[in-house]
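Hi support team,

I'm filing this because I wasn't sure whether my run with zinc ion finished correctly. The job status page said complete, but I'd like someone to confirm that the output block is well-formed before I use it downstream. Pasting the exact inputs I used:
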Amino acid sequence: MKRLLLILTAMVVAAFPINASAAWGKPARLGPTLNRSLEPDRTPGFLEPDSLMLEADASPLANYNYDELPRFDNAAEAGRYWAECVRDRLPDFAMVIEGHGEHENEVRWQDVANEYYNDIIDEGLRHTGEPDKGDYLRQIGDTYGGMLSCAFVKGEAGKRLIDGYIISYEPGFYYSSAEQEAQVGGLVEELIDELGIRSPRISPYEKISAVYDWLCENVTYDYENLYDDTYYVKHSAYAAIKDRTCVCSGYALLFYRMMLTLGIDCRYITGYVAGGYHAWNIVNLYGEYFLLDATWDAGAVNYEYYLLGTNSAYADRDFDDEFTSDSFKKAYNVPLCAYSVHAGERIGAADPDCAHSGRTGGGECSVCGAVLEDFELSAKGHRFENGVCTVCQRTEPPRGDLNDDGEINISDGVIMQRILAGLDQNVETSDFADFDKNGQTNVADGILMQQILAGLG
Ligand SMILES: [Zn+2]
Ligand SMILES: [Zn+2]
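And here is everything the job wrote out:
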């Protein structure tokens, strides 16, 4: 990601006794604000900021009270605050990073503050597995404006010591509003239910393909607004899930958010392809990460960019530097083969059935040589219709007979307690105990069990 240096615009010098609270008064304006401006989208990609624009607006730092600003002593904590602020689409916000006595006023505090400014964003974008943080915040608009300042206090022998670096962020604009983003989480949950992929019985592969199919079948590329530079929302996951039309970042951000919500690790990848800036994903499937690009597969009958390895059409793509680093490649193991190409004997492989879990089996791919790890595959659960499983023909036991011994008694009550305490992981028993058929056995089912045992249910 390119990031231009922030240009400082105001320096506040307030000399106070060291034990008095630091304060800042009227910021002295040293020059015009330099903000990043964005070039419009001209390709099947999105905005790639690379130019500077002069803006002569007033310092927003005057709007803040130094003593009331959130105060941090490291960039990691400050980054988490940054992430919350941009997630909530605040138009501007500021924070203080604790100064340290060793920085006297001859130190170029601007350099230190500027480093914090960048580190805070890097920390704020850290991939944590939270669906509305990490990569989800990478492409949310022009978030790189801001200003730096510094508060001094008077130290011993007349030295001025830095009390804190004041760092403000003034996103030029967001692609989607706080109101729109507030809807995305709920829409994602609704879509997961609509696709029927919430249950842990559904395999990761089935979940990935259900979401990818949905994106490719229901979301169209927004050619209509492609050249409308002020139509920001086309870049967002909101546009993908709500308007069902967006540009590449919308597809890739929604896929990222859906996967993390489902507990499947995923990253948002950017780079150049066919001369345009573009976004796609990698997703975790049984210990490896595979490439996919819903934008380019949207509307296709046969997918050409789905769950591929590096030895594929993606070899022609110019991935942004951060995705080609050794540390990234080590953390995200993308094999040469596509998922469907991996071949060879998998030792210990077993298909799951209604009541029993299976395993992928481990081994080595005979095509690319990759080591294939052994993973457990969850039991599928019965599909009872009229008291008989349509898959395996098992007869459904009477309601409340969790151990299927023909009687409903205290043993069944004990099984229910063990399920609720997380001590009984038997898929079949847990299914029998899901009286309200909501996909999970929880306290509501426990209450129903009590009523059944009391002869009331
Ligand atoms: Zn392979
Ligand atoms: Zn069955």
